[in-house]
């Protein structure tokens, strides 16, 4: 099984988000970076699959120089090889252009499986896995909560549906699968792993060398803003009956929930 | 042994067999020579001689008011044994005509007297011990020898055996006195009294039987000695000789950064931490061979006491068991996961109660941490929540995982204007706030109190602010030496940038790490814990307090302040000066015997799901003093006691305060 895991470096949830003056981007100096959460689950799923069925796990990331760290972390946890597509302005690519870049970088590798996290914590498109499936002619399943290898050419996945329902689906390989957080327990990077990481190769591509014909943005960023906190608390006082009728009144006429 | 003019040849044959068998039984012990080299050896010969005298001969640590009965019992046993050993040796020599000029004869009055005294003491000790094992049955005391030593009749067996030996000794003495009627017989007061019981003829008749009985039991004793609990009488002296008291409890640095930059490191086969028994140093193996299975450590261990699956004694004897089962170090059997479970290792709070009480100076904590190192650095399997806090420490420089850029937010939110080294460059005092003091809301109150006190006392101080990172204490004790070292090297680089005379911190964990552990990375820092610092400020009149004598206080000794660093008086003195001379009500377990809050050793960051919570146990003890305030002097203790107060619903009955808060609320001049 030759598995590629797409991994993105995103700002840590607790990072201070400060907008640039023209509100077109966020200031990068105050940000602590980390691996996108669901990508760590995707990596773990790939490593478990490799441990059970053999094969190779390749961690792939697209982004600025510091993105190599997510590849290194993946290598320390057990991935075999890294594939880094360098692009300092990766934030400026819309999801379709991003997918085209990945397609070019991955097409000759002939992966059996491409795993990616369900969506990135920063831009949250949740489309990359799907687009890649289309462009690389692979089967696709999204929101995967469990995997089972049937044989060399087929895989079964458990997908999350609405309302607490699940569905098992069988797919032909090659397949591109997006992984939901929580399906496994991502492992801890041991020092031994970190030491071994130093001996593992990372292939580096410059995104400008990649033939990305047609990767012109179709989506343009207009403006970024931090959502305004609107918090209005009204205390309703009186006897329980009065409170109930006032509350009903509020809901019907002011909040208009009914 | 009695003087026998014609010792039968067959006795010598028995003796030879005995010695060969003893050597055979000894062989397992030699496995320690296959251990790794030791870096913590003592330097001063004189100090070690002194320790051999104090802890070996005088057995200072055997006497503890927590174990009075056992102390008295051991006194009789040990001194009875020593005297008899001396007497037997003299006897052996004189019987062979060696040094007869200088040595007393069997019936030299003083010698005869102490000889019998020794026998009596031994018998007394044995009776006390047998009574203890049959009637008192201390809960944690193992009934038979734990795995590893061999189980010849169990621990009870050796007591009965020694009793036979002692009684046999008196009988053969009585037979000799009864048969020979020597001039000073009466000085052998017990043997002499016994000899009166039978006629001289009877003694002559049964003397050979008694002699053989005593001879055979003596030889058997020597033969099985290395297989029984008695072996400690030998190994313990070796262990004391090679134990550096000053370094007990200190972890061995791994120097990970050197390892990482070594291009020749054999990564596949390198042992990180201790995964199997031969990864220990020989001294750690010697430790394990010394354990007497007295169970004192397990009796006092907070994890064991609250029903967690940890017994420090078991771990030490498991190591011995693995050592004795190896073929002089050739076995590579895994220790962890087989004899010792991961949960046992993670239950330890590194409180040091085991090391404090251990009569034979075993160095438990570093040994346990070495095994955690294996789990984390080699296997990558810390407990899930522990792993998260470690990743956060690596990522954000604090185990809470808050952004590094917000490290001084507590002060900004409080509108405090605090000097920062990045601007000030130099100050007398570097105030080390610590992660808890920076991010934990309860401890932020302590930091604010400290700032107020600094300003009040006119101290020239500054903080590192966003340049401060976790000292790495929790990470290190969770076995994550890599993150610890990263933090240490990072902080040391920052220290080098600025000029200051001393570091003041309110966290004993930071205190301990900065003081003792950064040394291994080249930083010799003067670190003062805030209890001492506050005490000094009060004593020198830099701050004056309004002591309105209200409210009693019970003080909870933090493990890393008390047991690990011997700071007991300063915090008490601060309390007395802020709440009145008689304000302290001590808890039953105090000072060296203090009970852990449960958060040390990285246990702040994960839960052991078995047993009761340690902080509740301690809080209940504190609340029983009826003191109005529970005072702490440790960031973790404060969190744990505050939490226990809420869990137990006692917010109305008691307040939990840090020393700094206590002092701050009594400052005469508030600014
Ligand atoms: S350090 Fe404390 S918790 Fe750990 S084994 Fe010793 S007594 Fe138990
Ligand atoms: S480790 Fe020390 S305290 Fe614990 S049982 Fe052994 S000798 Fe006793």
Q: Any key phrases for this structure?
A:
heterodimer; A: 258 residues; alpha/beta; Rossmann fold; 2 domains; nine-stranded mixed beta sheet; two-stranded antiparallel ribbon; B: 671 residues; mainly alpha; Fumarate Reductase Iron-sulfur Protein, Chain B, domain 2; four-stranded parallel beta sheet; three-stranded parallel beta sheet; binds iron/sulfur cluster
What distance lies between the first and last C-alpha atoms of chain B, to the nearest angstrom? 82 Å
Reported for the largest beta sheet of chain A, the result is: 9 strands, mixed
Portion of residues in beta strands of chain B equals: under 5%
CATH homologous superfamily annotation of the largest domain in chain A: HUPs
* Count of discrete domains of chain B: 3
Ions and ligands: iron/sulfur cluster
Structural class of chain B: mainly alpha
Count of DSSP H/I helices of chain A: 6
Summed up, the helix count of chain B is 29
Q: Give me the count of strands of chain B.
A: 7
- Taking Cα atoms only, what radius of gyration of chain A do you get, to the nearest Å? 22 Å
- As for the number of domains of chain A, it is 2
Portion of residues in beta strands of chain A equals 25-35%
Task: Please estimate the helix content of chain B.
Answer: 40-55%
Q: Distance between termini of chain A?
A: 54 Å
The CATH class name of the largest domain in chain A reads Alpha Beta
Outline the secondary-structure elements.
The complex is a heterodimer of chains A (258) and B (671).
Chain A: E1 2-6, E2 9-11, E3 33-35, H1 37-53, E4 56-63, H2 68-77, E5 81-86, H3 95-106, E6 113-117, H4 128-135, E7 139-151, E8 154-160, E9 166-172, E10 175-179, H5 191-197, E11 202-206, H6 240-255
Parallel strand pairs in A: 1-4, 1-6, 4-5, 5-11, 6-10, 7-10
Antiparallel strand pairs in A: 2-3, 7-8, 8-9
Chain B: H1 9-26, H2 45-57, H3 68-95, H4 109-136, H5 154-180, H6 189-195, H7 200-224, H8 232-241, H9 256-261, H10 282-290, H11 296-300, H12 302-305, H13 312-325, H14 342-346, H15 353-357, H16 364-378, H17 384-396, H18 409-413, H19 421-424, E1 426-432, H20 434-439, H21 441-457, E2 461-462, H22 473-477, H23 481-497, E3 499-505, H24 508-517, E4 527-529, H25 530-539, E5 553-555, H26 569-579, H27 614-623, E6 629-632, H28 635-647, E7 655-658, H29 659-664
Parallel strand pairs in B: 1-2, 1-3, 3-4, 5-6, 6-7
Helix pairs in contact in B: 1-7, 2-8, 3-4, 4-5, 5-6, 5-7, 8-10, 10-13, 25-26, 27-28
């Amino acid at each position: 099984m030759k598995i590629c895991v797409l991994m993105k470096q995103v700002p840590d949830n607790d990072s201070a988000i400060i907008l640039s003056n023209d509100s077109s981007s966020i200031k990068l100096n105050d940000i602590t970076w980390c691996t996108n959460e669901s990508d760590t689950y995707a990596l773990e799923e790939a490593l478990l699959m490799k441990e059970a069925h053999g094969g190779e796990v390749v961690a792939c990331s697209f982004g600025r120089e510091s993105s190599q760290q997510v590849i290194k972390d993946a290598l320390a946890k057990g991935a075999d090889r890294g594939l880094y597509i360098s692009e300092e302005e990766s934030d400026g690519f819309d999801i379709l252009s991003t997918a085209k870049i990945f397609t070019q970088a991955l097409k000759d590798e002939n992966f059996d499986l491409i795993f990616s996290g369900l969506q990135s914590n920063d831009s949250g498109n949740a489309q990359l896995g799907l687009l890649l499936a289309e462009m690389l002619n692979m089967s696709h399943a999204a929101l995967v909560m469990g995997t089972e290898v049937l044989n060399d050419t087929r895989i079964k996945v458990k997908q999350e549906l609405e309302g607490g329902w699940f569905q098992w689906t069988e797919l032909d390989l090659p397949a591109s699968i997006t992984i939901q957080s929580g399906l496994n327990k991502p492992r801890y990077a041991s020092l031994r792993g970190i030491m071994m990481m130093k001996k593992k190769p990372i292939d580096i591509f410059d995104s400008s060398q990649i033939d990305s014909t047609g990767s012109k943005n179709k989506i343009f960023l207009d403006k970024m803003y931090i959502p305004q906190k609107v918090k209005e608390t009204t205390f309703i006082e009186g006897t329980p009956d009065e409170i109930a009728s006032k509350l009903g009144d509020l809901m019907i006429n002011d909040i208009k929930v009914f | 042994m009695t003087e026998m003019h014609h010792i039968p040849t067959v006795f010598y044959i028995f003796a030879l067999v005995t010695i060969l068998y003893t050597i055979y039984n000894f062989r397992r012990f030699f496995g320690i020579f296959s251990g790794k080299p030791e870096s913590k050896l003592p330097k001063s010969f004189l100090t070690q001689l002194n320790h051999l005298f104090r802890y070996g001969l005088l057995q200072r640590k055997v006497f503890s008011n927590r174990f009075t009965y056992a102390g008295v019992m051991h006194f009789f046993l040990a001194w009875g044994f020593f005297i008899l050993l001396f007497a037997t040796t003299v006897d052996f020599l004189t019987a062979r005509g060696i040094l007869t000029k200088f040595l007393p004869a069997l019936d030299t009055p003083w010698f005869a007297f102490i000889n019998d005294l020794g026998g009596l003491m031994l018998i007394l000790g044995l009776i006390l011990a047998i009574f203890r094992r049959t009637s008192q049955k201390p809960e944690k005391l193992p009934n038979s020898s734990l795995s590893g030593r061999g189980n010849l009749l169990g621990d009870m067996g050796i007591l009965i055996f020694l009793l036979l030996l002692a009684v046999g000794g008196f009988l053969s003495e009585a037979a000799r006195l009864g048969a020979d009627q020597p001039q000073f017989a009466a000085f052998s007061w017990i043997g002499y009294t016994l000899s009166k019981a039978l006629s001289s003829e009877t003694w002559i008749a049964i003397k050979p039987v008694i002699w053989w009985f005593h001879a055979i039991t003596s030889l058997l004793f020597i033969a099985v000695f290395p297989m029984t609990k008695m072996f400690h009488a030998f190994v313990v002296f070796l262990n004391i000789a090679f134990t550096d008291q000053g370094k007990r409890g200190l972890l061995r640095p791994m120097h990970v950064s050197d390892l990482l930059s070594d291009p020749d490191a054999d990564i596949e086969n390198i042992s990180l931490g201790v995964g199997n028994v031969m990864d220990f140093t020989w001294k750690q193996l010697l430790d394990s061979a010394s354990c007497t299975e007295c169970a004192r450590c397990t009796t006092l261990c907070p994890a064991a006491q609250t029903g967690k699956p940890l017994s420090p004694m078991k771990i030490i004897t498991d190591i011995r068991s693995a050592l004795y089962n190896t073929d002089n170090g050739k076995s590579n059997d895994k220790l962890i996961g087989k004899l010792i479970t991961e949960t046992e290792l993670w239950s330890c709070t590194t409180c040091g109660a085991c090391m404090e009480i251990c009569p034979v100076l075993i160095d438990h904590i570093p040994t346990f941490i070495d095994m955690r190192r294996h789990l984390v650095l080699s296997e990558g399997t810390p407990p899930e929540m522990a792993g998260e806090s470690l990743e956060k420490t690596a990522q954000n420089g604090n185990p809470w995982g808050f952004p590094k850029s917000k490290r001084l937010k507590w002060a900004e939110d409080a509108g405090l204007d605090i000097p920062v080294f990045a601007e000030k460059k130099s100050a007398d005092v570097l105030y080390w706030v610590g992660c808890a003091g920076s991010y934990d809301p309860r401890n932020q109150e302590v930091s604010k109190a400290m700032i107020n006190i600094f300003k009040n006392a006119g101290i020239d101080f500054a903080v590192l602010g966003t340049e401060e990172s976790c000292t790495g204490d929790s990470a290190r004790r969770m076995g994550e030496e890599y993150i610890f070292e990263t933090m240490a090297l990072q902080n040391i680089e920052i220290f080098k940038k600025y000029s200051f005379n001393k570091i003041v911190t309110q966290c004993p964990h930071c205190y301990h790490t900065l003081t003792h552990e950064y040394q291994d990375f080249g930083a010799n820092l003067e670190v003062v814990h805030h209890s001492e610092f506050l005490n000094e400020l009060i004593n020198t009149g830099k701050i004056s307090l309004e002591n309105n004598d209200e409210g009693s206080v019970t003080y909870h000794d933090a493990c890393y302040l008390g047991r690990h660093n011997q700071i007991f008086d300063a915090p008490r003195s601060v309390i007395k000066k802020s709440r009145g001379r008689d304000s302290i009500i001590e808890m039953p377990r105090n000072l060296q015997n203090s009970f852990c809050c449960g958060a040390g050793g990285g246990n702040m960051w994960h839960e052991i799901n078995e047993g009761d919570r340690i902080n509740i146990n301690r809080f209940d003890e504190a609340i029983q003093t009826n003191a109005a305030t529970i005072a702490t002097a440790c960031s973790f203790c404060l969190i744990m006691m505050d939490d226990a107060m809420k869990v137990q619903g006692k917010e109305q009955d008691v307040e939990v305060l840090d020393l700094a808060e206590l002092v701050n609320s009594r400052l005469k001049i508030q600014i």
